[in-house]
């Protein structure tokens, strides 16, 4: 056995080998040591190898999926080795023959299909990046749904596209650049180096055609060599990991980068589109707006949010669909009620195609088709916009398949086909008979006993059973002579004579005995045959089922966005080909949702970037905590939501199509790559200034704050001028450098705006209102006080600030010149003011409201009033 294990393991040195031993998967040697630590299970030993104990651990087969998920999340790959014959079959080849085993599947992050291993509401992409001379391409597939895409992609765009797709695993050629490997790792994907032969662009088209079952790829578009190479590598890797079980892939869709709003990785991270800065889904824009009721609808929402469209017709069609459902509340509610009962067609189809499915996947498809017909009926006779009309047309046409599944399957089948019991009674006569024999064998024998009594006229005749003879007919010796005489002797065959009884059998009884004994296995064989037939019927209809699944997802998303817009009072945006950006009463959806939990209102703000030949820039000043970053982000999100095809959180919005969205908000470092906070800031700013075109929307916050004051001011100054003069785009530029506000007089496309605050008795009150104009100060000391700095530090900061401002007014005295007269920090020099108690304080301290009578409470008020008069 161990020789067999080592031979199989040698073919999968980079994977943990799950070696099937009866009801367990066992791991040995280094695999056992690594798995026991990762899974927190006991490490034991079995036998010896080269004189040393062999480490061993194992997991039960019935619980293997949970252990697989843990290992995959911790970066392992797992080769699943199954027994391909029973021990009894092995013994036929010899007493010491080892049960034949083979690896049936290589489990990797990008090749998961089981529901228990996947997040139902997001895709699990496997991608491949190919480079051929100066050309490059990225292909990606979700084998759990069959979605297959490819796009030409310059190497410089690899990072942003990986950030958009968030693949679980990326296949690279063995000689791939280290820089490309680093980009994959930075995107959070598992890089997999694959043989260069798998990327052969000459063999790739044939490989892809074979996987799709077509003769040519021409019907799906024209693909260059790099695109063919990436697709071919994907198919080759899938074939290797799935051991020839190719999943149900849809025809490849060729995407063009110009069709979508370009958003780089830093912007996605800063805006928290699909995950928050902490790394989870909670707190992201996706989590806030997701009201879909199907898994496919949720996955479509993430795709749309990650890839806002730049096609006016597409956006308009999506908004028309949402518009109808916002207006017709009853229709929208009815659709959502029906959609809640729709299972995941795509993933059920994929599992069936890979032979990892079961009867429940079939009943899921049956239920989905039933709800699809119900949705089509709801839409019948309605004047629908073009997008919805096309989707409704794809909901029907499966009547034959639905009728077959409805007739063939029970209401609640078992998880696994091998458990049997999933075919409905009455669907197959042979199966019904086998089940009757299996479940009611005794009653069948009783009926035969009655028939033989009638035939022989012997009322004491009985049919009995023992382990030696099986079923037999027994009668007394007196009646036996009759049965051994003609014509009964032709039917009844003598088996045995005892002291008082004679035993017979008949051909029908022997046949019935065999059928009863084999009835259970026979019933299961029939069910498995019917299962294969049903699976073939479903897979034959896979192309049209895929269209139905897509239609259901689209309808779900439109209804979800309508429900969101109606509930939160969002408006339909107006989009055109100009460079306008006019938002009235805009709100940040995530911040507003958080405030609603506490009952606090969100202060809405307008934003109007005036179109000029040199772009349109708002220079935003004001204190920290006043809401500048929220204002910047909310306008970026409004543009993104609009081009996704959603209503937006505002009273009104007119937006010229945005080609690129850039965001440089917040501070972070990248210590692993030796980058300081300031270096990260400069790298991201450089990317914006080098790439933003005239149709871009840029939001920048506090450029230059990570370095010395004058260095930072000069960088911010030059950046603002470059945005205005060179990029000529729309931008929101927040800063604490009030010197920049003078540029509004010099640069025609720059306007000043500020976040309003009020001062009250030395404290600052945030109004969160954005107004035209410039702030005169940053209120940093007041914000520091709100943050909880010790009173002595706050007071000392006031003194230093006043001295610095006075020096600046009186001739630009540098801080260094003040050090001798004004030590930087001295607790003794600036003691915290001692609190003084007044007569009013003493009176309040002596009042216990719970014990006062009404008369005493009135007298206390008079006393307090007199004390206040004395104080004034």
TrEMBL record:
Coiled coil: none annotated. Pfam families: MutS_I (PF01624), MutS_II (PF05188), MutS_III (PF05192), MutS_IV (PF05190), MutS_V (PF00488). SUPFAM superfamilies: DNA repair protein MutS, domain I (SSF55271), DNA repair protein MutS, domain II (SSF53150), DNA repair protein MutS, domain III (SSF48334), P-loop containing nucleoside triphosphate hydrolases (SSF52540). The keyword DNA damage applies. One of its GO terms (cellular component) is cytosol. Keywords: ATP-binding, DNA damage, DNA repair, DNA-binding, Nucleotide-binding. It comes from the Bacteria. ATP binds at residues 622-629. InterPro entries: DNA_mismatch_repair_MutS, DNA_mismatch_repair_MutS-lik_N, DNA_mismatch_repair_MutS/MSH, DNA_mismatch_repair_MutS_C, DNA_mismatch_repair_MutS_clamp, DNA_mismatch_repair_MutS_core, DNA_mismatch_repair_MutS_N, DNA_mismatch_repair_MutS_sf. The keyword DNA-binding applies. HAMAP family: MutS. Belongs to the DNA mismatch repair MutS family. PANTHER family: DNA MISMATCH REPAIR PROTEIN MSH1, MITOCHONDRIAL, DNA MISMATCH REPAIR PROTEIN MUTS FAMILY MEMBER. This is DNA mismatch repair protein MutS.
């Amino acid at each position: 056995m161990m020789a067999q294990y080592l031979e199989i393991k040698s073919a999968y040195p980079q994977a943990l080998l799950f070696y099937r031993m009866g009801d367990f998967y066992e791991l040995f040697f280094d695999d056992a040591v690594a798995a026991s630590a990762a899974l927190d299970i006991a490490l034991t030993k079995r036998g010896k190898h080269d004189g040393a104990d062999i480490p061993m651990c194992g997991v039960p087969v019935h619980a293997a999926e949970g252990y697989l998920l843990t290992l995959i999340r911790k970066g392992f790959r797992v080769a699943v080795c199954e027994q391909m014959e029973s021990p009894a079959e092995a013994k036929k080849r010899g007493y010491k023959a080892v049960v034949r085993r083979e690896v049936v599947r290589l489990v990797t992050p990008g090749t998961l299909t089981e529901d228990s291993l996947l997040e139902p509401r997001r895709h699990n992409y496997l991608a491949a990046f190919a480079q051929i001379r100066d050309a490059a391409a990225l292909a990606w597939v979700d084998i759990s749904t069959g979605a297959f895409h490819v796009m030409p992609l310059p190497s410089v765009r690899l990072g942003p596209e990986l950030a958009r797709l968030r693949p679980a695993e990326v296949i690279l050629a063995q000689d791939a650049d280290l820089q490309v490997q680093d980009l994959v790792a930075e995107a959070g994907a598992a890089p997999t180096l694959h043989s260069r032969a798998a990327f052969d662009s000459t063999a790739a088209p044939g490989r892809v055609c074979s996987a799709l079952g077509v003769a040519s790829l021409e019907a799906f578009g024209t693909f260059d060599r790099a695109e063919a190479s990436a697709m071919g590598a994907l198919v080759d890797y899938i074939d290797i990991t799935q051991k020839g079980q190719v999943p149900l892939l849809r025809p490849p869709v060729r995407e063009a980068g110009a069709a979508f709003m370009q958003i780089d990785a830093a912007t996605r991270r800063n805006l928290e589109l699909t995950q928050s800065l902490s790394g989870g889904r909670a707190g992201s824009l996706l989590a806030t707006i997701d009201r879909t009721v199907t898994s496919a609808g949720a996955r479509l929402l993430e795709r749309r949010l990650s890839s806002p469209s730049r096609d006016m017709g597409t956006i308009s069609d999506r908004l028309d669909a949402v518009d109808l459902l916002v207006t017709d509340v009853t229709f929208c509610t009815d659709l959502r009620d029906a959609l809640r009962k729709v299972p995941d067609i795509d993933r059920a189809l994929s599992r069936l195609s890979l032979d990892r499915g079961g009867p429940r996947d079939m009943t899921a498809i049956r239920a989905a088709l039933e709800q699809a017909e119900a949705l089509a009926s709801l839409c019948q006779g309605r004047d629908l916009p073009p997008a919805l009309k096309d989707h409704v047309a794809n909901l029907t046409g499966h009547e034959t398949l639905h009728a077959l599944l409805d007739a063939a399957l029970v209401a609640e089948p078992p998880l696994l086909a091998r458990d049997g019991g999933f075919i409905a009674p009455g669907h197959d006569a042979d199966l019904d008979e086998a089940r009757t024999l299996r479940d009611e064998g005794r009653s069948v024998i009783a009926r035969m006993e009655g028939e033989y009594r009638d035939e022989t006229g012997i009322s004491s005749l009985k049919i009995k059973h023992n382990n030696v003879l099986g079923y037999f007919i027994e009668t007394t010796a007196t009646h036996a002579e009759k049965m051994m005489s003609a014509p009964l002797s032709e039917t009844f065959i003598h088996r045995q004579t005892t002291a008082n009884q004679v035993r017979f059998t008949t051909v029908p009884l022997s046949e019935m005995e065999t059928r009863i004994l084999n009835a259970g296995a026979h019933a299961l064989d029939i069910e498995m045959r019917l299962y294969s037939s049903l699976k073939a019927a479903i897979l034959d209809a896979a192309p049209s089922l895929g269209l139905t699944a897509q239609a259901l997802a689209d309808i779900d998303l439109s209804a979800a966005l309508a429900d969101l817009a109606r509930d939160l009072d969002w408006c339909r945006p107006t989009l055109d080909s100009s460079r306008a950006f006019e938002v009235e009463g805009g709100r940040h959806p995530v911040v507003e949702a958080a405030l609603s939990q506490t009952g606090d209102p969100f202060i809405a703000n307008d934003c109007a970037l005036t179109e000029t030949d040199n772009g349109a820039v708002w220079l935003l000043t004001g204190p920290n905590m006043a809401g500048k970053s929220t204002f910047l982000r909310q306008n970026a999100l409004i543009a993104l939501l609009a081009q996704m095809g959603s209503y937006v959180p505002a009273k009104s919005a007119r937006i010229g199509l945005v080609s690129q969205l850039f965001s440089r908000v917040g501070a972070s470092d990248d210590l692993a790559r030796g980058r300081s906070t300031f270096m990260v800031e400069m790298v991201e700013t450089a990317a914006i200034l080098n790439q933003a075109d005239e149709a871009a929307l840029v939001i920048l916050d506090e450029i230059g704050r990570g370095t010395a004051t004058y260095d930072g001011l000069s960088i911010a100054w030059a950046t603002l001028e470059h945005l205005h003069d060179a990029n000529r785009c729309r931008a929101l530029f927040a800063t604490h450098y009030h010197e920049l506000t003078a540029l509004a007089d010099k640069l025609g496309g720059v306007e000043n705006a500020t976040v309003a605050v009020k001062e009250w008795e030395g404290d600052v009150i945030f109004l969160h209102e954005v107004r035209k104009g410039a702030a005169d100060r940053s209120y940093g000391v007041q914000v520091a006080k709100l943050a909880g700095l010790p009173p002595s530090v706050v007071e000392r900061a006031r003194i230093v600030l006043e001295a610095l401002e006075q020096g600046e007014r009186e001739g630009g005295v540098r801080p260094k010149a003040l050090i001798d007269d004004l030590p930087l920090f001295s607790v003794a020099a600036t003691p915290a003011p001692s609190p003084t108690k007044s007569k009013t304080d003493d009176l309040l301290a002596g009042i216990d409201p719970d014990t006062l009578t009404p008369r005493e409470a009135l007298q206390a008020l008079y006393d307090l009033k007199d004390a206040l008069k004395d104080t004034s």
